[in-house]
């Protein structure tokens, strides 16, 4: 069973009088362990699709299934629980919580899950080490570089061992060296821990690293290549 | 919960300046409230103490109908028996005295003046009121308090004595209309009173109970038998017991609230208007707090969007913000309460001189207040105000918290 099943998904935004068809009927399956790059020109609907898969937005029509469960049939609380327990997010603008340290930002998701302190500590330290942030646990986001902040964001996304990590242009704000490191890191996590990744990206380096490239044009999937 | 608390505390310390300003506003308002409340309580207490000790008692026994029509000939009959009953019912804690009020004229060799004469028991009266402490002691002829059996002695208000041009040792004659003929009663001035109150100094005279009874031609009677208690909370019980014990006599038993209705009403109304003022003040502070909390939430829309996107439930977001209110309010409460208590200490120890604003003779509902007013601890009030300030801060954070919890994550994250 695929982790994500998208069927004839449409999302139309009402912009005053104008209807914007951000998604015009997308069909897509994402299998466990895939490292998928969602490519396409600006405005082609990548972010819209990721938000749909991440249960952050509701479709105009069609369906999204995560773990075989239809999102449309779930309550708000169930969707919160799904995001908390099964999904990880990396946003373009890092979006760390500024008052919390790297450690605490990473810990946040586990805390919300109600995990005991000792277990949290062990996991957070292990994850921060995995993303190469040992010794920086007690720094606040403002005391970290952009690349380091994005590493914290990745740590936060994977610390809960989610089934799927959704990343919207994770490398867009990073210089190419830092971006490369981050891609390598996620590729490693994918290979070693079997975490499934879906990226929306313009970055050709992400495409090179990806095991699957899905091209979008104008709200539709135009090509889908597995390497 | 502890985790949410940590986040809430961090958020408060993030904009420490704003947090401190908000907390200062709450604490300042609270301390002012505590201070004003203890002062008001002290004022009421002083007023009641004064009125009760001089004009009535905590419980008053007087002739039936006297309260509605205070005629000086309406007297408690069989005084000795009634007083004995009151003493035995009141028990050892109660101080009991009897008073006879007489309105008449006082004549000296030079002048004549109206007088409000009060027949008192010099011994028991000295245990319930403070007139005996207000004797004029300077001058070449220092006065003395009345002796218990000195039925020819009289103590005059200082201004009354001046008007009559008499001094200690001089003679005065009380003149009043008796049943059949004009009564003249000769007294010798034993002492002078300086109370600082125009009414008392200008018109009051004290004699023994027997002398006043004689003037009214009514032995074994009194205008009132008053009971003074150390614990005002015992008033209803004493009143009830007296009512029962005196059931056969033509007397009425009144608690001070009924014996001094104007004064009682004044304390109640003044308290109500004060509480209303406190409430308005609290609302103003609460609106300020609401505004700052809302502002601080709106600045963090993006953050709450991220939290919600990560799977934090709206309820958890709600709790983070309410916890901020709880923590902020808690410390503001501690600071404000402590400050209020600290500010109250001097007004309790040294009091406040109302005279500097209101002149010497402040009369409230027929009772002259002491110009020096002392605050009185009112712990239920103080603790109540503290808790109210805390709750108010929490309430002020509910609406912003609700708004934040309802944010749509995607839009919130796009917010800048
Ligand atoms: N909230 C919204 N309201 C109205 N229109 C929207 C909204 N969000 C997206 N759109 C529109 O939907 C279309 C798809 O947008 P989307 O953000 O998914 O594109 P994208 O592929 O992520 O682009 P980019 O590469 O620039 O991030 C665009 O035409 C966009 O203007
Ligand atoms: Mg996008």
In short:
The complex is a heterodimer of chains A (227) and B (416). With 227 residues, chain A is of the alpha/beta class.
Keywords summarizing the entry:
heterodimer, A: 227 residues, alpha/beta, Rossmann fold, four-stranded antiparallel beta sheet, 10 strands, 36% helix, B: alpha+beta, 2 domains, two-stranded antiparallel ribbon, binds adenosine-5'-triphosphate, binds magnesium ion
Mean pLDDT of chain B: 90
The CATH superfamily name of chain A is P-loop containing nucleotide triphosphate hydrolases
- CATH class category name of chain A: Alpha Beta
> What structural class should be given to the helix and strand makeup of chain A?
alpha/beta
Please describe the biggest sheet of chain A, giving its number of strands, its sense, and whether it closes into a barrel.
Answer: 6 strands, mixed
**Broad shape of chain B:** elongated
For the termini of chain B, the CA-CA separation is 29 Å
Q: What level of helicity do the residues of chain A show?
A: 25-40%
CATH topology of chain A: Rossmann fold
**Secondary-structure element series of chain A:** EEEHEEHEHHHEHEHEE
Taking strands numbered 1, 2, ... along the chain, how are they ordered across the largest sheet of chain B?
A: 2-3-7-4-6-5
* Total discrete domains of chain B: 2
Distinct compounds present: adenosine-5'-triphosphate, magnesium ion
Largest interface: A-B, 27 and 22 residues
Tell me the quaternary state.
heterodimer
Would you count the extended β strands of chain B for me?
13
Shape of chain A: globular
Radius of gyration of chain A: 17 Å
Estimate nothing, just give the exact number of structural domains of chain A.
1
The helix tally of chain B amounts to: 15
Write the layout of secondary structure elements.
The complex is a heterodimer of chains A (about 230) and B (about 425).
Chain A: E1 4-15, E2 18-30, E3 35-39, H1 46-53, E4 61-66, E5 69-70, H2 76-86, E6 87-90, H3 102-113, H4 117-130, H5 146-158, E7 164-168, H6 176-193, E8 196-200, H7 204-209, E9 212-217, E10 220-226
Parallel strand pairs in A: 3-8, 3-9, 6-7, 7-8
Antiparallel strand pairs in A: 1-2, 1-4, 4-5, 9-10
Chain B: H1 2-14, H2 16-55, E1 59-63, H3 79-90, E2 95-107, E3 112-120, H4 122-128, E4 153-157, H5 158-164, E5 171-177, E6 182-193, H6 198-203, E7 204-208, H7 209-216, E8 224-228, H8 235-245, E9 251-255, H9 256-259, H10 261-298, H11 301-309, H12 314-349, E10 352-353, H13 355-358, E11 362-364, E12 367-369, E13 372-373, H14 379-405, H15 409-414
Parallel strand pairs in B: 3-7, 4-6
Antiparallel strand pairs in B: 1-8, 1-9, 2-3, 2-5, 2-8, 4-7, 5-6, 10-13, 11-12
Bound molecules: adenosine-5'-triphosphate (ATP) and magnesium ion.
């Amino acid at each position: 069973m695929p982790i994500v099943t998208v069927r004839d998904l449409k999302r139309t935004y009402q912009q005053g009088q104008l209807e914007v068809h951000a998604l015009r009927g997308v069909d897509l399956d994402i299998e466990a362990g895939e490292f998928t790059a969602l490519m396409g020109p600006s405005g082609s609907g990548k972010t819209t699709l990721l938000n749909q898969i991440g249960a952050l937005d509701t479709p105009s029509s069609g369906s999204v299934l995560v773990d075989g469960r239809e999102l449309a049939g779930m309550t708000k609380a169930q969707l919160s629980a799904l995001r908390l327990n099964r999904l990880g997010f990396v946003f373009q603008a890092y979006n760390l919580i500024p008052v919390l340290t790297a450690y605490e930002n990473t810990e946040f998701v586990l805390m919300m899950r109600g995990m005991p302190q000792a277990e949290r500590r062990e996991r957070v330290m292990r994850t921060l080490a995995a993303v190469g942030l040992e010794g920086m646990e007690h720094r606040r986001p403002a005391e970290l570089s952009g690349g380091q902040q994005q590493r914290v964001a990745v740590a936060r996304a994977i610390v809960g061992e989610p089934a799927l990590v959704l990343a919207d242009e994770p490398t867009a704000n990073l210089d190419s060296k830092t971006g490369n490191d981050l891609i390598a890191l996620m590729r490693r996590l994918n290979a070693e821990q079997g975490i499934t990744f879906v990226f929306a990206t313009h970055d050709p380096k992400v495409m090179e690293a990806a095991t699957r490239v899905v091209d979008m044009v104008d709200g539709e999937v135009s090509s889908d290549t597995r390497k | 919960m502890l985790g949410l608390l940590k986040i809430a505390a961090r958020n408060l310390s993030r904009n420490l300046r704003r947090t401190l300003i908000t907390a200062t506003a709450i604490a300042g308002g609270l301390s002012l409230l505590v201070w004003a409340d203890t002062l008001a309580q002290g004022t009421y207490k002083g007023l009641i103490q004064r009125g009760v000790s001089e004009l009535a008692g905590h419980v008053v026994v007087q002739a039936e109908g006297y309260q509605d029509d205070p005629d000086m000939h309406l007297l408690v009959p069989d005084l000795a028996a009634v007083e004995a009953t009151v003493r035995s019912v009141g028990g050892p804690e109660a101080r009991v005295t009897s008073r006879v009020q007489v309105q008449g004229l006082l004549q000296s060799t030079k002048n004549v003046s109206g007088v409000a004469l009060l027949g008192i028991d010099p011994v028991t009266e000295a245990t319930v009121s403070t007139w005996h402490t207000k004797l004029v002691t300077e001058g070449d002829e220092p006065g003395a308090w009345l002796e218990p059996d000195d039925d020819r002695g009289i103590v005059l208000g200082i201004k009354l004595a001046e008007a009559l041009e008499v001094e200690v040792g001089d003679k005065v004659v009380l003149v009043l209309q008796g049943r059949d003929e004009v009564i003249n009663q000769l007294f010798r001035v034993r002492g002078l009173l300086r109370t600082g109150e125009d009414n008392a100094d200008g018109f009051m005279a004290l004699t023994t109970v027997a002398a006043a009874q004689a003037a009214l031609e009514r032995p074994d009677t009194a205008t009132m038998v008053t009971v003074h208690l150390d614990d005002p909370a015992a008033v209803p019980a004493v009143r009830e017991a007296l009512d029962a014990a005196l059931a056969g006599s033509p007397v009425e038993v009144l608690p001070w609230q009924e014996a001094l209705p104007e004064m009682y009403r004044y304390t109640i109304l003044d308290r109500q208007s004060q509480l209303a003022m406190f409430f308005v003040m609290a609302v103003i502070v609460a609106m300020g707090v609401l505004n700052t909390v809302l502002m601080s939430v709106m600045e963090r829309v993006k953050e709450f969007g991220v939290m919600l996107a990560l799977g934090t439930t709206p309820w958890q977001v709600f709790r983070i913000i309410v916890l901020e209110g709880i923590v902020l309010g808690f410390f503001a409460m501690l600071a404000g309460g402590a400050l209020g208590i600290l500010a109250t200490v001097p007004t309790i120890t040294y009091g406040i001189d109302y005279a500097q604003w209101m002149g010497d003779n402040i009369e409230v509902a027929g009772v002259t207040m002491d110009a020096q007013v002392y605050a009185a601890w009112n712990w239920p009030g103080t603790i109540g105000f503290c808790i109210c300030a805390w709750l108010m801060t929490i309430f002020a954070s509910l609406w912003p918290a609700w708004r934040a919890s309802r944010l749509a994550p995607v839009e919130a994250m796009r917010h800048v």
